[in-house]
Amino acid sequence: MARKFKKILVANRGEIAIRIFRACSELGIRSVAIYSEEDNTALFRTKADESYQVGFGKTPLEAYLDMNEIISLAKSKGVDAIHPGYGFLSENKEFARRCEENGITFIGPSYEVLDSLGDKIKSKIVAKKAKVPTIPGVDKPIRTKQDALDFAKEAGYPVMIKAAAGGGGRGMRIVEKEEDLIPAFRNAQSEAKKAFGIDDMFIEKYLKKPKHIEVQILGDKEGNIVHLYERDCSIQRRHQKIIEFTPAFSLPIEVRERICEDALKIANSVKYYNAGTVEFLVDSDLNHYFIEVNPRIQVEHTVSELVTGIDIVQSQILIAEGYRLDSEEIGIESQDSVILNGYSIQCRVTTEDPANNFAPDTGKIDVYRSGSGFGVRLDVGNGYVGSVITPFYDSLLVKMTSKSRTFKDAINKSKRALKELKISGVKTNIPFLVNVLNSEQFQQGTCNTGFIENNPQLFD
Ligand code: ADP
Fold this sequence. Notes:
Elements: E1 7-10, H1 14-26, E2 30-35, H2 43-46, E3 50-53, H3 67-76, E4 81-83, H4 93-101, E5 105-106, H5 111-117, H6 120-129, H7 145-155, E6 159-163, E7 172-175, H8 178-196, E8 201-205, E9 211-219, E10 225-237, E11 240-246, H9 253-269, E12 274-282, E13 288-294, H10 301-308, H11 312-321, E14 343-350, E15 352-353, E16 359-360, E17 363-364, E18 367-369, E19 376-380, E20 388-389, E21 396-404, H12 407-420, E22 422-424, H13 430-438, H14 440-444
Parallel strand pairs: 1-2, 1-4, 2-3, 4-5
Antiparallel strand pairs: 6-7, 6-8, 9-10, 9-12, 10-11, 11-14, 12-13, 14-21, 15-16, 17-20, 18-22, 19-21
Adenosine-5'-diphosphate binds next to strand 12 and strand 13.
């Protein structure tokens, strides 16, 4: 039996908080925002039905990470469920457990799933058991220098050092030769310790210029799981995504189908529920390898929504309430009823200045003219007149997602809307995004993860 929520607290900020408030509003659920002192004037908090400042006397990041404070606030305000968004507490299994212990539903997968899939080493073991190909690597944390050296010698260079708890491209190093291995390992480990508080590291073979392909999945609490096709997220800088699109049309349909099936195999093997993304790398011979599961909503979920017509965030809430995928509320009768229609591209408009090595700019936005129109969706976080961009949080201003019947027109719509978008007061990456959209390789859909690095003219 489904239990309807009356009130949801969003333990996040910026565009994703607004995205979730909107879904709550559409479902007739009251929304609660939390905000730090630094976010006192931020747009997102005004989009919720109620908002409360948290993190008094704490750093800007700690405000969104204090489980005790967030849970006790939720309890005192009569909240039924917490949506963690992405980043912050979204993959924190302890947070999920403590929410449930306090009678608050965590809108995400179960504690057990977060435990087995939230860690990159453990999730590779899950993938192997499900008979899904993984990148050759060690299957436990590296404890001694010799373990790392032995693996690299056997597998051959280049290798990649990664943090088990990694995210956002942090705690990761490519190592080309033996003498660089130990220093790189130490650097990556201290970066991981700082970023995640956990310094378990592992090592795997480095694939040369693969494509990054990921599959959106959605499962209910009764074991029904579907995929919402794949996204191509190969346009990356320092292992971070900048532009994403769907479908990954440059790959043969059989390869895409195999990848989606493998994503389902992994999800089914752990009885995954709620929304999640299974990520793969695809090499130049079209072999695919599992890399990780992101057990949460992702920044680029918008493209999958536009080509399938499925509201992923509403579905997350309904699943957490206990609805089945084939219920009237969610309306996904079977995999065959998930129909892919057209092409969609998401551009992340950020305050990063490509001319200055993508350093995030800060300041107050004094001009903001929006680009919109047919086929363009905007998810605004910090893009509006008067918005104060601080150095404390990510540099995303607005996500611009286009949709059309052809990839060519989706590009044209993105370019047109980016041209309409006028921002002054902070530097943005808009000219850089337009250069990528104009490149022939992007238009063919064939870019791999080395594309930006290998095309310095994109910075002109
Ligand atoms: P994070 O969780 O920090 O985002 P991921 O494991 O998802 O890290 O990897 C991010 C990106 O790093 C990938 O999309 C890919 O470009 C690159 N990458 C990760 N592992 C490898 C590998 N073994 N070989 C080549 N590139 C890799």
